Amino acid sequence: SGGIMSSSEANEFPARALLSGPAGGIAACSSLATMLGVRHAATLDMGGTSTDVGLVGAMSEIVATTRIAGMPLTTPSVDMHTIGCGGGSIAHVDAGGALRVGPGSAGADPGPACYGKGDEPTVTDAHVVLGHIGPSTLLGGAFGIDPDRARRAIERLGRRIGLDAERCARGILEIAEVTMVRALLVMTVERRIDPATVPLIAFGGAGGLHAAALARRLGMPRAIVPEHPGAFSAVGLVLAGESHEAVRTVLRPLHEIAPRELASIVRDASRAARDGLEGRSRKSVETAVLLRYQGQGGGLVLDAGPGLGERFAALHEQRFGFRVENRSIELVRVEARATTPATPLPPTSGGPGRRPRPIQARHGRPVYARQSLPLGVAIEGPALIEEQTSVIVVPGDFTARRSRAGVELVSRSS
């Protein structure tokens, strides 16, 4: 849920540690959104097997229930949506002859064909064919990439649908990006947030490869690729404050609970949450309630302030488009969360002040080393910006600028 738990709590409630990696990414993005001074931001964490999308800032929330492998997990969690689309996602032709990407993955071993062990065509192999990733890209060349093996894998797939390697590779990336667009729409449009008002924070090893294209497809004002994108979730875990949660189950109609009784339940949960961080000098406590219409299986989380019934109905209408008249609202449980302050995300430091020179050219695009870019420098696309574990694609209609928040990508046609 965005905070560090004690080892004893993890031992007693191991389910609370599930999805902690992606939660660290959300925590880091929340700090970055504060640095950017934006009300909210969409987040995209694209790794090898999956992509996690979320929303941080004023609109971020802790949800009461999430799912893992289709099974409900009823413990407070950061709100995110996960899809089976990552750098290792396998491209294939379905029974109807259509090109598909994922959810199957080549994993880390054997991995994409370009890693030299497997033969399955993946999203990463498509990037290699199109020149976004070169033989010396990863770990400065210490992790070898085999472009010929990637091309052969993509060519075999392309022959099945009448496409050459380049067109097949572009098709793979387009399908992957459409899948990610749908996931981002879940976290924005379905919450009545216009993507045109929301910047995109893209990280994970593969986030920078798709950041600009996704921002263009959704009309977002900019995309930001933070420092050390492949380890950004780990950065969030390091910076997160400690937390302890306490829950009191109620399961009664809201109108049957007197304000004094509800206040007593809230105080009891708050005391238990605060006691879980005993010895911490700086801590704060937030309380919330889980409400639902009687007969529903899920619910919505609201802060435990006055006017619960009307606020729940309004939030239900905003989220799902309707209210339910003549049906009681049920108070499922009261939650309290005690936290210690998180450490703010440190700003990026730039390279030397002089204008950087490309370290090489690949497929007609200049390639820049990210660490050499000074703060404020603008790189007009088409270009590639490389670091040890990731690549940022700067399309021809975009400009990349190094800022204290990371590398910001802005369309010149917007």
**CA-to-CA gap between the ends?**
36 Å
Low-pLDDT windows of residues: none
The tally of beta strands, per DSSP, is 22
Rg result? 23 Å
Class inferred from helices and paired strands: alpha+beta
Taking strands numbered 1, 2, ... along the chain, how are they ordered across the largest sheet? 7-2-1-10-11-22-21-18
Tally the helices: 9
Net shape: globular
Give the overall average pLDDT. Answer: 90
What percent of residues adopt helix (DSSP H or I)? Answer: 25-40%
| Beta-strand content estimate | 25-35%
The major beta sheet can be summarized as: 8 strands, mixed
Report what the structure shows.
- This protein is α+β, with helices and mostly antiparallel strands and 414 residues long.
- It is built from 9 helices and 22 strands.
- It has helices at residues 7-12, 20-36, 123-129, 147-161, 165-187, 207-218, 232-239, 259-275, 308-320, and strands at 40-46, 51-57, 62-63, 66-68, 71-73, 77-78, 80-83, 89-93, 99-105, 200-203, 223-225, 243-253, 284-293, 300-303, 329-339, 360-362, 365-369, 378-380, 383-386, 391-394, 398-403, 406-411.
- The chain has an 8-stranded mixed sheet with strand order 7-2-1-10-11-22-21-18, with helices on both faces.
- A hairpin with a 4-residue loop joins strand 19 (383-386) and strand 20 (391-394).
- Helix 2 packs across helix 7 and helix 5 crosses helix 6.
- The longest helix is centred in the middle third of the chain and has 23 residues, at 165-187.
- The two termini are 36 Å apart.
